[in-house]
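so my prof wants the structure for this chain in the tokens format not the other one, which i didnt know existed until like an hour ago. anyway here's the sequence
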Amino acid sequence: MIDLHTHTSCSDGTDSPRELVNKAIVQGLEILGITDHDTTSGWQEATESLRGSLKLVLGSEISCLTSDGISVHMLGLLFDPNHLEMQQVLEETRDGRLPRMRKMIEKMRAEGMDISIEDVHNAMPSGATMGRPHLADALVAKKIVRSRDEAFIDLLHNESRFYVSHAAPTPVEAISLIKRAGGVAVIAHPFASLRGEILSSESFTDLLQAGLDGIEVDHRDQNSDERELLRGIAKDLNLAITGSSDYHGTGKLNSLAENHTHREQWEKLESLANARRVVSA
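here's what i got, hopefully its the right format
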């Protein structure tokens, strides 16, 4: 099994990189992608934890905003970890998360919710990249909601009155950056209607021109019709087709490798990086 999209406690997952690698080994995965939001900070621990036949695909899920304000996530895989421009953009995007969180909290407090930025920090593992899941965990701790899933369904989805966007590259800029860093670019869950606003089919023209390499088709937040439409777009544009779990650990329904990528699609994708960067024990 090949799962190219997972998260650790270095962003908004609950498993440490070591714990995630151990779970992947126990479940018999062949290839595990670690793609924390806007950071590569989990790469070293994951690599040091690797053993047996498991292989690692290291990357990051880059937060993007279209020109009309739609939130898009771009998976950058197999890029050079020492690429200075990439690391600078990731840092700038992380820095934008704090003011965004403050604005969301202000909106909630204005409606009488007893929540603070300190509560969010208390819900975050040390060194994590701040995100909405940490606000969700803080809301659970304050007994405002019962679970992380309930928080997203009721309060934190993209069309919620509490939602605030943040400074981020456009999808085209992110793809171009990933390619300059020698990696491959896969757009994550682009038709995920369960998350709110989604891209249109026409959006892929600009993404393809920028160098898009693949589309994440099989994802739990995309229904069967959306998956089939994306599969057709990927085939028409000769893009790799991936399936992934978007695993975050405890508190989200996603199970490790619940969706996965077929070997021939992975080989097609991996061949497009400018160097062989898959990590083996």
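also thought this was worth mentioning. The chain is about 40% helix and 15% strand.
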